């Protein structure tokens, strides 16, 4: 009794397991997490170090350099990058994937503990943040006062921080919430400069009085036998007006603070701003938990916001940015693409099989296989995203291959051998199941190296390889269990219908011409090998050497998601109010642009608010704009970007401008697609080199916008005190600096504490009218023990232009020249950049390197090359035991270079670049295309075992296997067409995979039916020829194992 007969005796058990798999599959599909792309960013820890009052140079030298040296010693560190600006240093430490995010945070925290005692006094406690894909907000909410409300944006921010944020954090599906938007409430104590001089006061004494008289002071403990009671002297104010009564001591008398200062409740000077949908607002970012479900977080946040809207009717909540639309639209498109793939595949099967029942038998495997696949996905913790859904669609053509082969063989046994439906099912399945298993196994085998290749490649492509493996496994199980089980009930010996007869005549006529063509070509090739072989070799060389460079290379293809990013910087020293006017002009253009939906504008940064951007300077910003998807507009996203770029260039006050699509860089740690980094120690030389490089890059085709990361263009006043005069007045440079800093920038003297709310800072400084010009600075009467003296008498003030930021990477100062493209291949731009900089004179001790996408692209292609080589080795050795020969696997693998020709030309013809998904397509293609060769060779070997001669066996195989080979190839191609046609938002990222597979299968299948039999005959004749030098090879390559 055969294996098939044994398990077909238990139909009820098979059907019960089938229904159980379907139920579990449906449940799993409904519960799978939704995301746009797999989480792929490297683990990253950001450290924010604040040193109030310090210049960018001081922050670099005293804080950043010591800390980054310590951080660079940690294990598995890829990169340490820092940005120093006035008062703040931000260090980003990027780790290898092998380093867990929590472990990385512990290591960084330990490193800071070791170095903290060596850092300057006045440094605020370091803030450490984990940065991952979960740090990207799933939703940005713009909160504004409703029209008619008396609330200011400062009050809205207070409500957001004190009430809205805690309410959202109580939702289990929400990982974190961050508030942003410049309007931080504070109590201003604006000192009158003439009063200072009149009373001989200094700001330090006023600050000290504020602190001492606005504090709750402990006064000991009363102890008795029965109790301990603490004593406290309450002194904190309950209202800002009470500050007026604070007593400022003078010699022999005192005055009140209200006599020398104006006290108001206002907001801090803004170094950041947020606009939602073109209006000033407070931004609120909703983040998912680590490894959380994006859609679950969004839906939970939407429900919570509805409740908050009802609770706070004076506020208006609007969505400024969200991942919901793109994920839902993409999933809907992908399901539509899956439907189209199934329809096309079934149509191809029907046209070639010309049997309704046989087609239905093969088609029934599709839903069953998918339900099993979804169950496996849930079991292995995968999610539904563009990558996994692409694998599901790709699997349509692949998974029916097994069912087609089994169903076609059963029907052939039924039709040609006259067996009963049951016997035909048993014998047809038994005859083909091992060859079918071998084909399925080889496809799975070539995917295994991808799952363990490491790096970014593994993060993106492993889910795809896993889903394909699951689908192929499920497909084979279904093909050898469900198909033979249902075949006796579905297939009949009766007369075909008229439609079937008509289609059969068409299909047979088509196939007969194919068979005749291939047989003629084969016979010709046997006689004139060189005539047939040389064109194939020449075409292969031409494809690899000439066509591939024309195709170009990318890490990942650009995509049109309908989201545009506008990155900008206004000219230095521009007041934030003026910068806001520039932003208003850009937003006006965007709001009126056809297809506009929503936008979020962020300028500057706030310490500790990572999701809005931590290393942005106060004059840098980004606008995220959502347009309708590409199926509902005429222009593609790159045409929109070009149009907006030209419009924004006309706006005065913009220093730098880039307009690019969402996902322009596959990794968040890549600053721009093109990044030419200059490193060295003299900032002036660095800046000079960057300007020269930028000038040269303007001539590189494909680059649309350029900028460099910093300039010497921020105006700064340098106060150079006369030390002798300072000493004569009883001052030191430190005292002078402190007084000027407090008067012009302000110092936090104390806090106004409100029960159950965040305390308001009380800031002491001069009024705005007395601190807005150089004359105000020079005429400042500096308090001294000998009476006030004008600053101009004890110091000189010079103007200087300094760097707005200081950037370092891997312990060296750097400047980056950043460039954006539209759709030009990165390899073509890389070549252009290399040519433009070929004769650049680089001083000794300085280095110019291409970073951006080039570096990870080279690393990824290196890993993919290793994976491809390993896949081919595994493929070869898996075929050896199957055919018990070292020779036949070589014959089978002849199909791979033939398919490569079609893959390369396919990319060229449809205008796609060779990229990571295309490489994956090559690897997948090598496993798929050999299946046809396996079926062909398996038939030849079985025919020869039955006594047929070489020529007869080969020609018989061509005749018998043309139909199933064409069916499997064309059905696989049909299933991939929706992916190649980019029928879903985001599929542009993976369409090259389908293009490679379609082109390779098309050409590979056409050539396989000629060259594989030809190569087989050539090796067989060589084996039996008795030629000299062959005897040694016979023992290895031509012997049975």
From TrEMBL:
Residues 291-318 form a coiled coil. Keywords: Coiled coil, Membrane, Transmembrane, Transmembrane helix. One of its GO terms (cellular component) is plasma membrane. The keyword Transport does not apply. It comes from the Bacteria. The chain crosses the membrane at residues 334-353, 360-380, 386-407, 432-452, 464-491, 526-544, 867-883, 890-908, 920-940, 961-981, 993-1019. Pfam families: ACR_tran. GO terms for molecular function: xenobiotic transmembrane transporter activity. InterPro entries: AcrB_DN_DC_subdom, Acrflvin-R. The keyword Heme does not apply. This is Acriflavin resistance protein. It comes from Thermodesulfatator autotrophicus.
């Amino acid at each position: 009794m055969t294996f098939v007969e044994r398990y077909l005796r238990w139909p009820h058990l098979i059907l019960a397991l089938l229904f159980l798999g379907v139920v579990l599959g449906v449940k799993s599909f409904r519960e799978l997490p939704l995301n746009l792309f797999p989480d792929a960013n490297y683990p990253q820890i950001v450290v924010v170090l604040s040193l109030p009052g310090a210049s960018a140079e001081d922050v670099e030298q005293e804080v950043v350099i010591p800390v980054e040296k310590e951080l660079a010693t940690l294990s598995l560190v890829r990169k340490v990058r820092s940005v120093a600006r006035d008062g703040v240093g931000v260090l980003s430490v990027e780790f290898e994937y092998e380093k867990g995010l929590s472990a990385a945070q512990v290591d960084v925290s330990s490193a800071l503990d070791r170095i903290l005692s060596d850092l300057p006094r006045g440094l605020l406690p370091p803030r450490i943040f984990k940065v991952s894909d979960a740090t990207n907000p799933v939703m940005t909410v713009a909160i504004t006062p409703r029209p008619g409300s008396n609330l200011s944006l400062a009050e809205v921010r207070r409500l957001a921080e004190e009430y809205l944020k805690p309410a959202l954090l109580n939702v289990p599906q929400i990982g974190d919430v961050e508030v942003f938007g410049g309007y931080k409430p504070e109590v201003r104590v604006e000192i009158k400069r003439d009063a200072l001089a009149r009373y001989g006061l200094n700001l330090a004494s006023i600050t000290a009085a504020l602190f001492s008289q606005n504090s709750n002071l402990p006064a000991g403990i009363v102890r008795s036998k029965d109790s301990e009671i603490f004593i406290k002297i309450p002194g904190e104010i309950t209202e800002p007006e009470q500050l007026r009564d604070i007593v400022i001591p003078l010699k022999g008398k005192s005055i009140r603070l209200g006599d020398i200062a104006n006290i108001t409740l206002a907001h801090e000077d803004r170094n950041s701003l947020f606009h939602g949908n073109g209006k000033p607002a407070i931004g609120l970012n909703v983040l998912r938990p680590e490894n959380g479900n994006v859609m679950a977080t969004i839906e939970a946040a939407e429900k919570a916001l509805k409740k908050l809207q009802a609770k706070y009717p004076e506020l208006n909540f609007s969505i400024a940015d969200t991942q919901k639309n793109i994920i839902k639209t993409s999933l809907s498109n992908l399901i539509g693409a899956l439907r189209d793939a199934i329809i096309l595949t079934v149509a191809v099967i029907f046209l070639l099989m010309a049997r309704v029942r046989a087609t239905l038998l093969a088609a029934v495997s599709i839903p069953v296989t998918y339900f099993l696949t979804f169950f496996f996905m849930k079991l292995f913790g995968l999610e539904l995203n563009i990558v996994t859904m692409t694998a599901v669609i790709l699997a349509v053509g692949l998974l029916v291959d097994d069912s087609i082969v089994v169903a076609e063989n059963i029907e052939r046994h039924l039709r040609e051998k006259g067996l009963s439906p049951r016997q035909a099912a048993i014998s047809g399945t038994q005859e083909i199941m091992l060859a079918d298993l071998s084909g399925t196994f080889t496809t799975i085998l070539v995917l295994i190296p991808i799952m363990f290749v490491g790096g970014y490649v593994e993060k993106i492509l492993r889910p795809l390889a896993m889903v394909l493996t699951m689908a192929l496994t499920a497909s084979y199980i279904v093909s050898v269990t469900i198909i033979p089980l249902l075949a006796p009930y579905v297939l009949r010996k009766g007369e075909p219908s008229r439609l079937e007869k008509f289609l059969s005549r068409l299909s047979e006529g088509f196939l007969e011409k194919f068979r005749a063509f291939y047989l003629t070509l084969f016979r010709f090739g046997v006689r004139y090998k060189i005539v047939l072989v040389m064109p194939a070799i020449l075409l292969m060389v031409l494809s690899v050497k000439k066509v591939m460079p024309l195709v170009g290379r990318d890490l990942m293809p650009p995509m049109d998601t309908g989201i545009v990013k506008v990155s900008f910087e206004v000219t230095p020293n521009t007041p934030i109010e003026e910068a806001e006017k520039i932003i208003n002009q850009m937003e006006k253009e965007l709001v009126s642009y056809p297809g506009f939906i929503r936008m979020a504008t962020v300028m500057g940064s706030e310490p500790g608010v990572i999701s809005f951007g931590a290393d942005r300077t106060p004059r840098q910003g980004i606008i995220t704009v959502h347009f309708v998807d590409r199926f509902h507009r005429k222009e593609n996203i790159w045409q929109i970007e070009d149009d907006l770029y030209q419009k924004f260039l006309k706006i005065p006050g913009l220093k730098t401008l880039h307009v690019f699509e969402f996902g322009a860089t596959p990794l968040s740690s890549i600053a721009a697609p093109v990044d030419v980094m200059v490193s060295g120690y003299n900032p002036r030389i660095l800046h000079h080199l960057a300007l020269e490089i930028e000038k040269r890059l303007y001539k590189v085709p494909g680059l649309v916008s350029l900028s460099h990361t910093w300039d010497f263009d921020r105006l700064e006043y340098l106060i150079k005190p006369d030390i002798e005069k300072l000493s004569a007045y009883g001052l030191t440079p430190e005292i002078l600096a402190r007084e000027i800093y407090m008067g012009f920038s302000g110092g936090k003297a104390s806090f106004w504490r409100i029960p159950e709310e965040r305390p308001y800072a009380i800031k002491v400084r001069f009024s705005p009218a007395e601190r807005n010009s150089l004359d105000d600075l020079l005429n400042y009467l500096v308090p001294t023990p000998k009476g006030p003296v004008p600053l101009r008498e004890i110091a000189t003030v010079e103007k200087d232009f300094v760097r707005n930021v200081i950037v370092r990477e891997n312990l060296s100062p750097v400047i980056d020249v950043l460039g954006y493209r539209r759709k030009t291949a990165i390899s073509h731009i890389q070549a252009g950049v290399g040519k433009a900089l070929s004769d650049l004179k680089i001083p000794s001790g300085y280095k110019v390197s291409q970073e951006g996408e080039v570096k990870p692209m080279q690393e990824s292609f290196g890993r993919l090359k290793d994976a491809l080589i390993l896949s081919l080795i595994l493929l070869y050795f898996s075929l050896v035991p199957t055919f018990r020969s070292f020779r036949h696997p070589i014959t089978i693998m002849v199909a791979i270079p033939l398919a490569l020709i079609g893959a390369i030309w396919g990319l060229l013809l449809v205008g796609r670049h060779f990229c990571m998904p295309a490489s994956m397509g090559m690897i997948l293609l090598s496993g798929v295309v050999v299946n046809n060769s396996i079926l062909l060779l398996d038939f030849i070997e079985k025919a020869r075992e039955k006594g047929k001669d070489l020529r007869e066996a080969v020609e018989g195989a061509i005749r018998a296997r043309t139909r199933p080979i064409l069916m499997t190839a064309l059905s696989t191609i049909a299933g991939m067409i929706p992916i190649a046609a980019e029928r879903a938002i985001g599929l542009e990222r993976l369409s090259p995979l389908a293009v490679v597979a379609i082109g390779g299968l098309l050409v590979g299948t056409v050539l396989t039916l000629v060259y594989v039999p030809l190569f087989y005959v050539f090796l067989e004749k060589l084996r039996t020829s008795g030629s000299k030098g062959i005897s040694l090879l016979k023992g290895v390559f031509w012997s049975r194992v």
